[in-house]
Amino acid sequence: MPATDFRIEEALAQWQPRHLVGGELLAQGAPFGVVDPSSGEVFAECPEAGVEELDCAVSSARVAWHGWKAQPLEKRRAVLHTFAAALEEAAPLIAPLLSREQGKPLSQAEMELKVSGTHIRHLSSLPLEDELLRKDDRGAVVLNWRPLGVVGGISPWNFPVALAMHKVAQALYTGNTLVLKPSPYTPLATLAVAEVAKDIFPAGVLNVLAGGNAFGAGMTAHAGIDKISFTGSVATGKRVMESASATLKRITLELGGNDAAIVLENADLDVTAAALARSAFYNCGQICMAVKRIYAHEAVHDELAVRIAEKARALKVGSAFEEGVEMGPVQNRMQYEKVLSLLDDSKSREGATVLAGGGALDRPGYFIAPTVITGLDDTAPLVAEEQFGPVIPIVRVRNAEEAVERANAGNLGLGGSIWGRDGARCAELARQLDCGTAWINRHGVNDSDVPFGGMKESGYGREHGVMGLHSYMELQAINAIPPGN
């Protein structure tokens, strides 16, 4: 495991990235480079699993499934809680790897690891019980939820550990076994977590393998995998859905979002500006449910924009290991270039005004200054598309009705929020938003007991809550006919 003094080069020299397959740590596969987004340079190598390793992992998971699903729910919960505690304890050791490969500040990396433990514990404490549908003179009907089998989990690069651990908790708690693939941009911390898990779960219950797009495609098409849980882009999600259809795999897709925040004329600007700035710039804006565009009533637009710009300029941007840093770089070059392209287009539009930031920082790596821009309309790609970076457009609107109509335009519908002092009015508007989660005077809160997912092209199905757990299970209706009928 990595060294506790956070000297990353020494840590890497002591720790060898390996896949977890059937309870064994394996280093098979040609190495591929892992880039430090703070420098743009390769800093480590990771083995890439192939068809043989995938087949072995699926086979091991299938064998392990029979024993794991037979365990009482309380036993599976206890094992997951043991894992959660071990992950929390290992957080300071793994955090440097996570920071180095993802780019987020060290304190935020450690927080991600510790919060992962919390979510595992919460998700594996939710009730899973049969439901009595009816009991009358026709007989009793009981709804029985049973595990699907082998789940394939594919996790993204923005919160590599946290989003992977959501899949671990839900898949294993419900009695399935799991084959997990982290993003090739950020495989190291997840493999380190797998090393922590090795001696906690029975062999084959949890398998973790690093691989690229071809490996992911192999998972979605594999006949031995019964469900795919994918978190990532809309374009890739569509390919996952197409590939999984050949074997009628169950799927859950948590995809992109272009979340709109609607700020009413009576909003508390102190609270609103602070919360929206945090949502827009935390993790360098690389959060699926972060606020991506703000529709502000014309009565408060200018003041709100000034306040958010002040928050943006005050952020300390730098590499993960710089003291006091609050925001790191964009995670990879492709996303970095996309965000800069959207920003360049926006700055060229008539009426556009940059109030903070405005471009890349003059230093190595994929750093973009936290940017606030006004004067755009919905024809600007920065407003109409998901930027997934530290750039926030603030758009002037005349009234709430206009804001809701514009927020609902487009093909995405993950989240949205309403900001104002009239709770009843805010709730009424929230119900009009075409999104999976509508917040009131908050944005981006994701509780383990609340189902989460998107409308339109932002997703398919739900994660979290009992509803999310049931998506990892198959429903069986047990129909008991009374004797003599």
Automatic annotation (TrEMBL):
PROSITE patterns given in the database record: ALDEHYDE_DEHYDR_CYS (PS00070), ALDEHYDE_DEHYDR_GLU (PS00687)
Pfam families reported for this sequence: Aldedh
Family under the similarity heading: Belongs to the aldehyde dehydrogenase family.
MF annotations from Gene Ontology: oxidoreductase activity, acting on the aldehyde or oxo group of donors, NAD or NADP as acceptor
Aldehyde dehydrogenase domain location: 32-477
Organism: Altericroceibacterium endophyticum
Record keywords: Oxidoreductase
Listed name of the protein: Aldehyde dehydrogenase family protein
Active site per UniProt: 254
Keyword Hydrolase assigned: no
PANTHER family xref list: ALDEHYDE DEHYDROGENASE-RELATED (PTHR11699)
